[in-house]
Amino acid sequence: MKLLVALALVTALGAAAAPQPVKIDRQSKLLDFTYEWPAEAAAIPALDKRFRADAAKAFAEARKYAEEDMALTREQKRDYNQHFYAAGWERFGQSKRLLSLGETVETFTGGAHPNHDFNALVWDRQLGKEVAMHRLFAKPTAFGAVTRSAYCKTLDKERMDRREGEKLGGEFDECPKFADLAIVPADKDGNGRFDRIDFIAPPYVAGPYVEGEYEIELPVTTALIAALKPEYRPSFETQRGQ
Fold first, then answer.
1. Does the pTM of the predicted model rise above 0.85?
2. How many CA atoms lie less than 13 Å away from 240 in the CB half-sphere?
3. Contact partners, residue 98, CB within 8 Å, separation at least 6
4. Cβ pair 130, 121 in contact under 8 A
5. Tens digits of per-residue pLDDT, 80-125?
6. CA distance 102 to 127
7. What are phi and psi of 196, to 5 degrees?
């Protein structure tokens, strides 16, 4: 009986200690602030510490802007519109070695409309650090070589569909640099291997604000897997027919 009780206690303590999603929520008349990350990230001490530091920095900056705007509205004798900052990381997929996260950031600082931004992060559990997307490949230029053409063609098709065949001219008809995008490996079927790559362009990067973000999904191909460093190939698989 004592053994059963002890085992039950250990099980209960283990369940209680299981990592949970984290949400930092700080509300005031000045600022509506939230910052979130999933349990998979909270389970990694270095990543959890990083997100807590990022949240503290983001809150300090957002509050500073809100205080400055409040002072300005009082000086100009107009109504103050509460600022908000909402950042949320979500898991796009994970393998035994890699954890892929995407972040959506929504902000309002008293202007004409809210703003949106996106970020991506690939964490290498074995190395204990973030790894840039191109660093997963044997050659730094390999990722662009196997995805750039397909991305630009797919983006152009999506833009033409949204614009009903019209061209806007200038930068909004150009293919944006990969450095301006959030590029996130994703596991579509949830089997522990990445089978697609998501390319997310926030407003103003691939088109005007009214068109919103452009999220382009490309399948993982045999050519992409062949270009990976050998140690990362087990984390990826091709989509059927690719």
1. yes
2. 2
3. 122, 123, 124, 125, 131, 185, 194, 232, 235
4. yes
5. 999 999 999 999 999 999 999 999 999 999 877 899 999 999 999 9
6. 20
7. -150, 165
